[in-house]
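The instructor's notes for this session suggest beginning with a concrete chain rather than abstract definitions. Hand out the sequence below and ask the class to guess, before any prediction is shown, which regions might be ordered.
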Amino acid sequence: MIEAVYNACVRCGLCLPTCPTYLETMTETSGPRGRISLIADVDQGRLELLSPGFVEQMSQCLDCRACEAACPSGVRYGSLLEEMRARIERAQAPNRSAGRRRVRELLLHRLFRSGRLMRAAAAVVRAGQRTGLHVAAARLLGLGDAAALAPEIPERAFVPNDQRYEVAGAAGTAFLHAGCVMSVAFAPVHEATIRMLNRARMNVVVPRDQGCCGAIAVHAGEPDFARELAKRNIVAFERSGADVYVVNAAGCGSALKETDRLFADDPEWSERAARFSARVRDAIEVLDAMDLDPRIGALDVEVTYQEPCHLVHAQRVSAAPRRLLAQIPGLRLIEMEERTICCGGAGIYNLTQPEMAKRLQRRKVEHIRATGAAIVVTANPGCAMQVASGLRSDGSRVEVKHLVELLDEAYARYGAAVNRA
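After discussion, reveal the predicted structure:
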């Protein structure tokens, strides 16, 4: 099934300058072309699936999809990587110790299946941050530098509970994807997104029966679990009656837009999944397509924009964020070098591949600091956490903000100025 995909690669090498791990190692096997050759060797029986070097390369890849955007032959590299990770997982699972199976079950299956458990875990992290015990706890659990990566957990999570936010003369209704990490660590981004969608004359609904997008499950080589999570969101969207499924996390949006691929061979769900995927939009896409109120406050600030990989490469959304930033009076955008090269966040990559993640983090921080900007704008929680952690470690005071937060701040500033007058 994947033979046609890897045979489409003509080995031109145009992908190599876009690959973060290749740029760091300058090693052929650490680039897309080399990895495709390894995948072909495994698929055709010339290399063992569980060869240590092959397993390491499948794990070291960030799945940032930059190679796909650069490929003139349209090779769907992401589908190759996800298929091989699924095969590796199926082969490794029976040999895991009982302890490792329990940890995986808790951290992957239970945590990402249950919003209640995710909120409980966030509360524990918040308590640890207040007492300073979160660092020791992370190391005790074998999670390395996870404590340094975690953002400051807000007091209140964003809990989907069938909320409705309506506006007069609405042009349509948006289903807001609350997600898992976003709902507990970035609740203010959801609140800003709702206000911005209302300003764009969109009603907003937040159904309680939604859940995780399934991206982490796909990256972990568990497509069956990803399908379980996807079905929940498909049904929730169908029941909501909304016109569009809006996401403000680039990684989630990419996974949700590709839900149809998960069900390509499922006659019962394929059509429903295809209809669902066709209605998924990033919040930035929606806001860019609408006529926003021109009464927006000025922000006298220099910013740089960190392109989330799964927004620019997987979803091919790059001009829209810049058009929105250009609407803010006084704001000056300074483009950084290598703005489309991954920062090393990539879901849980900074936990599974900490050494490479740190190398890419340092590379990104250097480019950010070189701009002299006061704010880094992005549109994905993984990027926000990775970049913020790197800046803190570097002693920098540069802020990290979601693009929607910055827009919301500018509109609020205009309203405050009017009220003072």
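Then share the key points. The chain is about 55% helix and 10% strand. Residues 32 and 99 are 34 Å apart (CA to CA).
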